[in-house]
Design a protein that fits this description.
The protein is mainly alpha-helical and about 280 residues long. Helix content is about 80%, strand content about 0%.
Length: about 280
């Protein structure tokens, strides 16, 4: 009986250590791990707190995301006033006019799924920077286009930015903003998207009498997009993504590290035979 109690205590302690190693808390000697549920929860909370952005970082990040939504709205709506002048400049047919308008949507169809993949693999901040780059490049191509096909390319690239921003801005806002302001800021993001569209209509009206005004209409999204691209380097990364990325790295490290198999609670037959001849006979039978 004394042997069984000692063996059970030893195997239970080893098994607790094994479970700790298996819970992605592995250390080189597997000796530093939470021994109680309270310590484990404290560890998780400290890990979460270490990734929380500062107040200034939250303000900068949320402002950049909402400004990106405004650029997105401008890019979506500005073409409505530019099409008549573009048609006159390039003598477009009806099908070509339809292509100028619709190719932006095709780019957005590509940018949407791409935004989700980029957000998960490289982070929300990287995705916002990529959307800003697409807006800036698309605006430059459209403003300086020498012909119809370069204009289509610019519209397509800007559409990719539209898809990226439409996916990433709400995700980033919901993960960086304070919980008490999360609904307000997400609503403000949609408001600025609409405000950007309204601004585009005012710009279209103000430049409608200039035969070359369509170039400025389409190119005005470039400077704010470039500014957002620079700001993206300073905004904090989403704490949710940082935690998930840390968990993935820890899981990959644990999977690539050789580990001992879980010890059995049951003593081996030789040990049983040495401790109790009667138990040995039962095993043999």
């Amino acid at each position: 009986l004394a042997y069984k109690e000692t063996h059970f205590a030893t195997t239970a302690a080893s098994y607790q250590e094994y479970l700790c190693c298996d819970a992605h808390l592995w250390s080189p000697l597997c000796m530093s791990y939470p021994s109680t549920t309270q310590e484990y929860l404290a560890y998780k909370e400290s890990m979460a707190d270490s990734h929380e952005p500062t107040r200034g970082g939250r303000i900068l990040g949320c402002s950049a995301a909402m400004a990106g939504a405004a650029v997105n709205g401008y890019t979506l709506c500005v073409v409505s006033g530019a099409v008549p002048q573009i048609t006159e400049a390039f003598r477009l047919s009806l099908d070509e006019k339809a292509a100028v308008v619709s190719v932006n949507v095709i780019g957005a169809m590509l940018g949407g799924p791409l935004g989700g993949a980029v957000a998960d693999s490289h982070g929300r901040r990287y995705g916002l920077a990529l959307a800003s780059f697409a807006f800036a490049l698309g605006a430059a191509l459209m403003m300086m286009t020498p012909g119809f096909y370069v204009l289509l390319l610019g519209r397509f690239v800007a559409g990719v930015g539209t898809g990226l921003s439409g996916v990433l801005s709400p995700i980033y806002l919901s993960e960086v903003s304070p919980p008490a302001l999360r609904g307000t800021l997400t609503t403000a993001n949609e408001f600025l998207l609409t405000a950007g569209c309204l601004l585009a209509l005012f710009v279209d009206y103000s430049l409608s009498h200039d035969p070359e005004g369509w170039r400025r209409m389409l190119g005005l999204a470039g400077p704010p997009a470039l500014l957002l691209l620079l700001v993206a380097a300073a905004v904090p990364e989403s704490p949710v993504w940082l935690r998930s990325d840390a968990e993935r790295a820890r899981s990959a490290r644990a999977a690539s590290t050789p580990r001992a198999t879980a010890p059995s609670f049951a003593p081996s037959p030789p040990a049983v035979a040495a401790a109790s001849p009667r138990a040995a006979r039962q095993i043999g039978s």
